[in-house]
Description:
Elements: H1 4-26, E1 29-31, E2 36-37, E3 46-52, E4 57-62, E5 67-72, E6 78-83, E7 89-95, E8 99-104, E9 109-114, E10 119-123, E11 131-140, E12 143-150, E13 162-170, E14 173-181, E15 190-196, E16 201-206, E17 213-218, H2 228-231, E18 237-245, E19 251-258, E20 264-269, E21 275-281, E22 290-295, E23 298-305, E24 309-314
Parallel strand pairs: 1-21
Antiparallel strand pairs: 2-24, 3-4, 4-5, 5-6, 7-8, 8-9, 9-10, 11-12, 12-13, 13-14, 15-16, 16-17, 18-19, 19-20, 20-21, 22-23, 23-24
Amino acid sequence: MYSSKKMISIFFISIVLLLTSGCQSNNKMVLSDPLFYTQSMPNAGIDSIGFLMRKHVIVVTGKEANQLYVYNAMNGELKQTIERPDAYPNGVNVINDELVLITERDTHQVSVFDTSMKFLGTFGADILRQPYGITSYKKSDGIYQIFITDSYDYDTPKTDRITSFELSYDKDSFSIISFETFGEEVLYQVESIMVDSSNNTLLVADENKEHYKIAVLDLNSGANIGSKLQDFIFLTDPEGIALVKTSKNSGYWIATEQSKTDNKFHLFDRESFEYLNTLHLEDISNTDGIATAYMHGSWYLYAVDNDHRVGAFKLPEMN
Length: 319
């Protein structure tokens, strides 16, 4: 039998643990003042988001509806709808505020638009199998490096999940200079990918339940740099990835942990990949794509809500 002293000790330890647990829960950062929610589109399959700075619009993919949507980035007003028949548009990437690239899973290609969403052409149909995520950086004037995740043969280990294209663009005309498989990282089920050329890194999420992770790869060699982010334990699907830049090299990453009941947005230091905090967005769940934008002196986060709309929130200042 327990002595009275032991019982008292256990009681006080339990109280301390309970209070500590409550403090941790209260420390979660909840953003509850949305800039807007777009109108619900229940059957659209809203997936990914890109931001056009000069026009202050977001471009959003609707994979199930085979459509693209252009919304005002400050109030969520729908400005334009673009049909992409039988394409299953998924990933979206804005290049240097000049081009909008859309990965299309079912046509195995990337569609290219100008900033007015005028269609310019496609590339990759003879190379890609099931393209999903897409990111890019500027190499030199008119030359851009594109990275695309290829999630063919789901849940099978592959070392050719990322394809890199070198693209040239000049006066509404583009061409592909070269392409190659990027790196040899073993990945199972891939979608989200994000580049940080200033820090020479490329992040890619693996959504396979047995191998949840966000791998951090060296932008030159493709080698895994073994960052602390890769050691972070995701309990559910790691999804959208976005970057907040507070200077040329500093800032923080936002990595989505997708859930219908406990949707989270984890923050990691841009350079060290140390865990910083976790965000929750009011009335946002089951998030696929996210995007960040800098407007009028503040950073904003755009997040897909359960496949049917986008919510926008002003991000707090991070120390």
